[in-house]
Amino acid sequence: MNTLDRKLGFLSSLPLAVVLIASFLAPMAVVALFSIMPAKVFSLANMPDFSAYSVFFKQGYYKSLLWSLGMALASTAILLLISWPLAYGMAKVFGRFTLVLTIAVVMSLFVSENIRLFGWVLTLMKGGLIEGHFRAWTGVGFDSPLYGVGIIIFGLVYVYLPFMLFPLAQGIAMVPDDTRQAAYDLGATRWQVLWQIEVPLAAPGIVVGSLLSFVLAAGALAESKILGGQAVIAIADDIETAFTFGQNWPLGSALSMILIVIIGGLALFGVSKVDLDAIMGRKR
Amino acid sequence: MPTSRSTRIALYVYGILVIFFLYLPLVSVAFASVSRARYLSFPIKRYSTKWYGEALESSTVRELLTTSLSVAVLVTIISVVIAFFGALAFARYQWRYRTTFQKLILLPIFFPQTVLGLALLMWFNSLGIIPSWKTAVVAHLVWIAPIATLIVAIRAYSFDPALEEAARDMGAGTWTILREITLPLLAPGLVSAGLFAFLLSWGNFPLSLFTTGADSTLPEWLYAKMVSGYSPLVPTLGVMSVVGSFLLILIALSVAWLIRANRESRAAQN
After folding, report:
1. Any idea what the CATH number is for the domain that residue B246 is in?
2. Measured between beta carbons, which residues in chain A are less than 8 angstroms from residue B221?
3. Sign of the CA dihedral running A257, A259, A261, A263
4. Where does the UniProt annotation locate this protein (chain A) (predicted)?
């Protein structure tokens, strides 16, 4: 039976493996190769040099990288804070309401990210849903909160909420009620239970959720463009510009490589720390 | 129970507040879509369905819808097939490189999609392939096939391998077992994977942006109109796209419900 399992396992992994090799690993190799080509070439048949990487430091691209990482960090921290009570409710308190909440959150995911961000522009702009009605009723207007760093972080928090919420709820559901009850019976305070019981036992969910939202937010493009109005440039934005307006594939590739190494390193590290069988299904 | 009554009420209120926030921007889009004015400002003075009429008559809109639909349908079909086998390798069979495979699947999901899209553009270029909506299908698969696989894998974890082994002991071959036992058992997972695949492809922007070439999908067009040259059709098409995907969910759920009811009534007769 074991040899059969092994053969079938290998065979059934093939379709997905082929897709991932042809459209994930191979393109990544192309990016790596392009990043060491001289500036503004469109083929790989050139002598390699590393000029694109030196441009990264000389022309201040590291600033957008730092902005992107900083905003991603901020949005992840905020997400952790605002998702925890909700995830706790979904795992331990809400009965039927958990299903309602899950469906509501998942349904919102199906609406194209651009449309939702555009909706926030309509809601928050001067003369938008909030300011427009407020002025019509009171006669007093106020400035729009759009086009700044704060609103970009708000957009990231809004868009990536589900990616934090669901892993977190899954993680908190893994904390046995008995253990919490026992801690309370022994006289632990709410905070002691949180820090010494719930956080350590829910760690896999916390890690997966934080990793997902950080990684996605660090590579995000639309929030800074649609909500931020270029108040700060995100690294993904620089990468896109290098490829499109700049027509400089090696520079775009070098910027991509830097982002890939940081994000890929984090993702690999995080993924190697979690036991997928334990999170997704029963342990066999 | 350590959770007090007031905490519970606060949590419920909080949950409802989060749902309100999630949908507030869509409310604005819906209002904007029925404003008569070409340049929008709230509160809306005159309502009309004029832009819906224009959207329905426009040939650009028809082309956008056709392209988006073709990509999404192909992505759905291919993803479901890949996810069926992928999930078995992920959760069911014990084989040598299983944990490596599990981790490889997660990488594209954890990846910035803009970078993925650009990498694919360069890869197609070095292969000499001219990008069109067909290359966008390949691009969407990188991200959507792994997600579909994870969804089916959740289902695959919960079924009992003894059922397959019993069939094998009674002389069924590998293909017969896959068709008669495994496929029906995984069916609910495959339906939700297909639904997710369709909707994620329908709404995807960063992967389409670089890989559709001269063709254009709905999210791409919306983005272009948002950053430069606002058109009153933006909110209209936004609402149409949302309503379209919700209708699809409703249809899929009722089909799934009908199939289940039918199966149950047959089981009751036997």
Report:
1. 1.10.3720.10
2. none
3. negative
4. Cell membrane
Instruction: Tell me the ipTM for this assembly.
Output: 0.82
Decide if domain A50-280 falls under CATH 1.10.3720.10. Answer: yes
Q: Answer whether A53 touches B (CB < 8 Å).
A: no
Is B238 among the domain residues?
A: yes
CB spacing of B111 vs A215 below 8 angstroms: yes
Encode pLDDT of B221-250 as tens digits: 888 887 777 777 788 888 888 888 788 878
Handedness of CA A95, A96, A101, A106 (dihedral sign): positive
Which residue of B lies nearest to A107 if distances are taken between CA atoms?
A: B246
d(CA B53, CA B174): 54
Interface with B, mutate which of A18, A23, A103 (most B CBs under 10 A): A23
The amino acid at A148: G
CB contact under 8 A, B202 and A110: yes
Query: Are B123 and A30 an interchain contact pair (Cβ–Cβ within 8 Å)?
Result: yes
pTM: 0.83
For residue B135, the chain A residue with the least C-alpha distance is A23
Q: What is the per-residue pLDDT across A32-60, written as a single tens digit (0 to 9) for each? A: 888 887 777 776 767 677 777 777 777 77
Within 8 A of B42 by CB-CB distance, chain A residues are 122, 127-129, 131-133, 136
Cβ contact B269:A138 at 8 Å: no
Long-range contacts at A130-136 (CB < 8 A, ≥ 24 apart): A131/B42, A132/B41, A132/B42, A132/B43, A133/B42, A133/B43, A136/B42, A136/B43
A175 has a chain B CB within 8 A of its CB: no
Residue found under tokens 């009554």: B5
Number of helices (H) and strands (E) in chain A: give both, helices first: 16, 0
pLDDT in tens, B31-63: 887 777 666 777 777 777 777 777 777 778 888
